[in-house]
Amino acid sequence: MDILQSVDPTSSLSSLSDPYRPSFFELFAQEQLRDLLAPALRYVLSVFTQRHPRYLLRIVNRFDELYALAMYAVERHYLKTWGERSTTEKTAAFSLLIAVHPSTGSSFAENFYGLRRRRRPGASTDRAKAAATTRPGQASYEALRNREISLSLLFLVGLPYIQSKAKDRWERMGGGVSEEQLFDNGEELQGRRAFQENEQRTKSQLVRLKEKSEDLFHKGYPYAASFYQLWLLIYHMRYLFGKSPYWRPWLRWMRVDVRRVSQDDYPNSVPILPPDLPHPLREPVPFFTSLIRSSPFIFFELLKYALPASIFFFKFLEWWYSSDNPRRRRGGGDGNGGAAPAQGGFGTNVPLFGPPSVLMPDKEGVLFHKEEGYQPPRVPTKMALAGGMHGPTNVASLLHNSCPLCGRTPVANPCMLPTGYVFCYTCAHAYVDEHGQCPVTRRKVIGGKDSIRRVLG
Question: Where do you find CATH 3.30.40.10 in the chain?
Fold first, then answer.
């Protein structure tokens, strides 16, 4: 078998052999979606916390715990509502709909990408697969039981929470920075260690045991994290080349694999509202009662549509506040379109600042009192005009394009001071270094020689 065909997710060879086996890239995409949800929600919450710290600061401080509880509710809904073998705990309005298709249990991210989890049959030969497709109880056998659902919740919610807290704890303890990197001097390092040894003698056994365990965790966490990633890499490679049906080790322990959703796994249209919902005008009380009873199902099912809508909304905000938006280039950021407002680019409260006023020359400056060595600007030959004729030299243009300190035309290696006047670099550097002010305006140059800017072009 060609290696490229086994790796390519669009390969026709793998599709013909098992069309419902997802590619590694599909599984990796849904895993990335789960990993990116927490940082995105944390960032949005931190932005709102800056405006309302009184109400949201406690939520931000306990974000990991609250996010784990929220994801537990979401993942439990998608695993139990569509994947449980029994339908006794389902909402009454949806019990018949779910009972017909009981084998589509999946996590939130897997459901978003059209994947599902199933209990893998004990016999996986081609002959057994052909017989299993015609067996009446096959759909019920593939449905997730309480054991698979509980273990799935443990690895979908519990494991990421433990990893997040462990990494946060390791970073709080200094991360990968050692004492040798903090103390350049060997004597300081030896003195610190001697001081720590003296403190150890006065501490209780419980405190010393706690410190040793923290030190062991700080040193062993990078190795444990590397071993964990290597362990997952082995399963990734085995799944990528078709050597194993499990792309995660805990799926192997549960004997649960991930499959693509077929047309028989879901009904043609899954309604968000209950099919037997009473009429709101004729029976308002039963209508609101049924709506409240079905609100958890409706909320969790709407998350599938809220995720792409939120992604589109954030991309729209990113474009709206970027320089690619033509309205922002015109200064009309108030959303009304057209030209910019009279007093502001983002609203009437933000004024538009015009160009700075020109700093006029001081009467004691070099324009009125020439420096020693100043030579009037001149050109070696007369300027050639059209037709080969010669005309007089324009003295005003020469004065405008000459160095005010030495009179050279054109300015050699031009540079500009913060006052806006241009000089030769050597002249300006020497003058500012000696006097610390602009030769023309006699204003103090803040920053001295570092404020000189070269003029290119």
Answer: 386-454
What are the tens digits of pLDDT across the range 353-380?
A: 677 788 888 888 888 888 887 887 765 4
Q: How far is CA 146 from the centre of its chain?
A: 35
Q: Where are the beta strands (DSSP E) in 325-429?
A: 414-416, 422-424
Which tens digit of pLDDT belongs to each residue from 69-105? 999 988 988 888 755 444 434 444 444 444 444 445 7
Strand residue runs (E) in 12-150: 115-119
Residue type, 40: A
Residue 160: CB atoms within 10 A of its CB come to 17
Q: Which fold has domain 386-454?
A: Herpes Virus-1 (3.30.40)
Q: State how far the Cα of 89 lies from the Cα of 111, in Å rounded to an integer.
A: 20
Q: Which residues, 6 or more positions from 134, have their beta carbon under 8 angstroms from its beta carbon? A: none
Show the tokens assigned to 34.
Answer: 């789960």
CA-CA distance, 109 to 227, in Å (whole number)?
Answer: 26
Contact 165, 64 (CB under 8 A): yes
Alpha-carbon gap, residue 365 to 370, rounded angstroms: 8
**What pLDDT is attached to residue 66?**
93
